Amino acid sequence: MAQNKREGTLVEPILRLNGEHVRAIHKASLSLLDDPGIFCFNETAAGVLNDAGCSVSSKQENQGVWRIRFPAALVEQSLESAPEKVVLGARNPKNRLVLDARVPEVYFGTGSETNIYLDTRKREYVCPNNTSLTLCHPSFHQERGSIEYLCQSAKLCDVLQQVDFFIRNVNIQNEGITPENKDVNVFLASLMYSTKHVQSGLVELDSLKHVLRLAELISEGSEGFPKNPVISFITCVIKSPLQMVDDTTEKLIAIAGKNFPVVISGSPQGGSTAPIEEEGMTAMINAEILAGITLTQIINPGTPVLYGAVPVRARLDTLHDLYGVPEVIHYNTDCIQMARHYGIPCYSTAGVGDAKVPGMQATIEKVFSQLFVAAAGAQYIHYAFGLLDKTNIFSPLQAVLDDAQIGLVRGILRRPVFTDKDILETVEQVKKVMDSKTRLFARHIRKAMRKGLVSLSYPFETRELEDRVLINAFQKLKDILSGPDNRLDETLIEKIYREIPGLLPRNFFEIPGIQD
Amino acid sequence: MADILGEIKKNLIAGRVDREDEGFDEDMVGQPGVTELVRQALEENIPPADILNEALTPGMEEVGVLFEEGEYMVPDMLASAECIAEATKILEPYFSGQEIQSRGKFVIATVEGDLHDVGKNIVSTILQASGFEVQDLGTCVKADDIVSIVKETKAGFLGLSALLTSTMTHMKETIDKLKEEGLRDQVVVCIGGAPVSEEFAQKIGADLYGEDAFDAINKLDKINAPGN
Question: Where are the alpha helices (DSSP H) in A414-506?
Answer without folding.
Answer: 420-435, 446-450, 469-481, 490-499
